[in-house]
Each structure stands twice: as structure tokens, then as C-alpha cells.
């Protein structure tokens, strides 16, 4: 059997494109409907109630496009609004547990760092998952509220002093604890990988939530006979506010010049 419906992916902005990038590596025959809530980014400084409402709207939008599975490619939603999955008629995949499992597998000294939005860090979602599977682990967390705006504005070069100084400020307290593994707890953060590697050094392994999540989705679709047979429709990219930076970043991350974002009115969903 096969299922040619698209995979639905949503995020507060363009960060979830890092998940789409990893999906395309392992599932090149699948199509994607992506929604980036560029008009309301970031989610990480909002209340739990607002984040949950936004997530429900995002999910309804993707369902209206007939997707077969929804990925909350947003660390904030995955951390504080995962319960919205109970209302969905299709499988739901979050990014926290898969990244946390990858970190547990990767660490050699049991010292794991987590960076994310304010809401993600306050939730302790990654920390609780890690300690549930590695009780002796030492988990050090820090919120990085400037990272999402930097990525959305395209300030991501390892030579940009603004990005470097922000990374040093947020990461130094964690690095000083001797972590050997760092979870990038927001899907925007892999866009800053060159900056983060420069600050962390070679001794720290960065865990990209997109890689771990894409591997799980491939396994899930395979085991449940939901893979496309190759006749999937073209990908679609939707945003809640027209953003040239979104289209530019999508083309750069995904290596395609054909990507053009469509604007939708998410408040009417």
C-alpha cells in the first residue's frame, strides 16, 4: 500500500525548514505542505494558552490541505502544547523526544546542554525526557531569546559579531559545565550551526532536532505502509505574512530556486 498525501509541517516561522531539509534527505519521494507563522513569530515568549491556540490553528490549516501526518517542527509547541495531538485525525510528531533520545545516545560523559526559547526551557521537556532515561545525567539549560529574531533577519554568519556575541553570552555558562552534547531545542537554531560550532568548539556534539525527527518519520511511514509511491503532489510553502526573507532562506536551505511562499490568513482558520 502507499499514501500519496503530503506531510504537514508547521513552525512559528522559517526554522521548521531545517526539519523539511532533513525530511527531503531521507524521504525524497514525499511531498510537504509547510506553514510558517511569520506574522506571529516568535512563539517562545508567548503564554502557554496562546501557544496552544496558535498550534491548533496551524494544525487546522494543514488538515485543510489533506495531509497524512503533522509535524510540529517547533520546539516551543512540542514542549508546551503537545496535547493538541489528541484532537487530530492524523498522526502527530513532535521534535522534543527524538532529539532528547539522540542526545542520550550521543553523550559520553553524561553532561548534556539544552538551548531553546524561554517557553521551551521553562517547560523542562527535554530535561525530563533525558532524566527519565538517564537518571544520572547532568542537564544544563539556557534560553536564547535573541536567536529566533537573528535567524528570521538572516543574521547567521559565523563572522557576524552580533550573532557571535549572542551565542557566547548564551552558551558560555553551559560550556563551562563541561557538556559534550548540546540539543538545539528550537528548529531555528541549526541555521546558526556555524556560529554555535565556533563558540562550542569541536568537543561538543550539536543535536539537530530535524535529523532525529526525520529519521523517526521515515520509520513510522514505512512501518505503517504510508510511504508515497512517487506520485506525490508538488511541495507547498505557506506563510501568515509575506516575507521575502522566508522565501530566500527556503531557497538557500532546500537548494531550490522554485520556492515561492503563499500567504494565508491564519486568523480565519
Q: Biggest β-sheet: count, sense, barrel?
A: 6 strands, parallel
Give the low-pLDDT segments.
none
Shape: globular
CATH topology of the largest domain: Rossmann fold
Question: What is the CATH C level class of the largest domain, in words?
Answer: Alpha Beta
The CATH level-2 architecture of the largest domain is identified as: 3-Layer(aba) Sandwich
Q: How many strand elements?
A: 10
Number of domains: 2
How would you write the strand order of the largest sheet?
4-3-1-2-9-10
N/C terminus separation: 32 Å
* Class by alpha and beta content: alpha/beta
What's the Cα radius of gyration?
18 Å
The mean pLDDT is 95
Percent in helix: 40-55%
How many helices does DSSP assign? 11
Share of residues in strands: 15-25%
- H and E string: EHEHEHEHEHHEHHEHEHEHE
Short structural summary:
The chain is built from eleven helices and ten strands. It is α/β, with parallel strands linked by helices.
Structure description:
42% of the residues lie in helices and 16% in strands. With 269 residues, it is of the alpha/beta class. The chain has two domains: 7-95 and 211-268, Rossmann fold (3-Layer(aba) Sandwich), CATH 3.40.50.1860; 96-209, Rossmann fold. The strands form two sheets. A six-stranded parallel sheet has the order 4-3-1-2-9-10, sandwiched between helices. The longest helix has 16 residues, at 48-63. The chain is globular, with a radius of gyration of 18 Å.
Amino acid at each position: 500500500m502507499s499514501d500519496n498525501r503530503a506531510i504537514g509541517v508547521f513552525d512559528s516561522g522559517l526554522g521548521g525548514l531545517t526539519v523539511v531539509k532533513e525530511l527531503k534527505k531521507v524521504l525524497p519521494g514525499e511531498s510537504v505542505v509547510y506553514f510558517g507563522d511569520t506574522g506571529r513569530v516568535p512563539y517562545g515568549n508567548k503564554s502557554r494558552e496562546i501557544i496552544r491556540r496558535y498550534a491548533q490553528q496551524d494544525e487546522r490549516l494543514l488538515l485543510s490541505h489533506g495531509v497524512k501526518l503533522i509535524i510540529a517542527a517547533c520546539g516551543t509547541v512540542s514542549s508546551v502544547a503537545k496535547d493538541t495531538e489528541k484532537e487530530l485525525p492524523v498522526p502527530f510528531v513532535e521534535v522534543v523526544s527524538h532529539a532528547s533520545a539522540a542526545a542520550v545516545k550521543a553523550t559520553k560523559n553524561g553532561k548534556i546542554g539544552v538551548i531553546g526559547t524561554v517557553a521551551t526551557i521553562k517547560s523542562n521537556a527535554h530535561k525530563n525526557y533525558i532524566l527519565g532515561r538517564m537518571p544520572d545525567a547532568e542537564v544544563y539549560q539556557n534560553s536564547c531569546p535573541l536567536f529566533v529574531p537573528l535567524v528570521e533577519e538572516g543574521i547567521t554568519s559565523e563572522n557576524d559579531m552580533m550573532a557571535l556575541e549572542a551565542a557566547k553570552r548564551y552558551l558560555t555558562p553551559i560550556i563551562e559545565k563541561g557538556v559534550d552534547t548540546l540539543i538545539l531545542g528550537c528548529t531555528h537554531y541549526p541555521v546558526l550551526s556555524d556560529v554555535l560550532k565556533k563558540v562550542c568548539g569541536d568537543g561538543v556534539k550539536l543535536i539537530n532536532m530535524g535529523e532525529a525527527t526525520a529519521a523517526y518519520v521515515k520509520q513510522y511511514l514505512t512501518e505503517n505502509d504510508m510511504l508515497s509511491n512517487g506520485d506525490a503532489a508538488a511541495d507547498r510553502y505557506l506563510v501568515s505574512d509575506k516575507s521575502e526573507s522566508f522565501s530566500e532562506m527556503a531557497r538557500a536551505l532546500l537548494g531550490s530556486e522554485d520556492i515561492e511562499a503563499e500567504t494565508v490568513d491564519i486568523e480565519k482558520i
